[in-house]
Amino acid sequence: MDEAYLQDLFDTLSDLKIRRLFGGQGIYCGDRIVALVVGGVLHLKSDAESEPLYETAGLARWTYTRPGRVPTRMPYYRFPESALDDPEEAAQWTEIADAASRRAAAAPKPRSRRVRRALTDKASA
């Protein structure tokens, strides 16, 4: 997707950055990912709080499929077609995705299996 177009679409974000990601583009506000473009399709970040808003609007969830594997539902929903040409609607959806991104960044990160195993082994000793 054209980078200048994405910058215009997400102009309400401060510290907007667009980087290459998954053969597409990641749209960031600072270090937080807010949206991504995969296969030419723009998707917005979601979480448990924003998911009902996306689903009520009838937006499709991005599912990542790899050969021989079960499809993985990713926390991103397709950007609404109607918002692509409507700056006010685009700003509303951008705010929803940005809020989901802020919540994700503030959430405690789960420990990896390796760290949990090391802690379990220490406790057993």
TrEMBL record:
Q: Which residues form the TfoX N-terminal domain?
A: 8-97
Tell me the InterPro entries matching this sequence: TfoX_N
- The superkingdom of the source organism is Bacteria
Organism, as annotated = Aurantimonas aggregata
Q: What name goes with this protein?
A: Competence protein TfoX
Q: Write down a Pfam family by its short name.
A: TfoX_N
Segments for region (Disordered) = 101-125
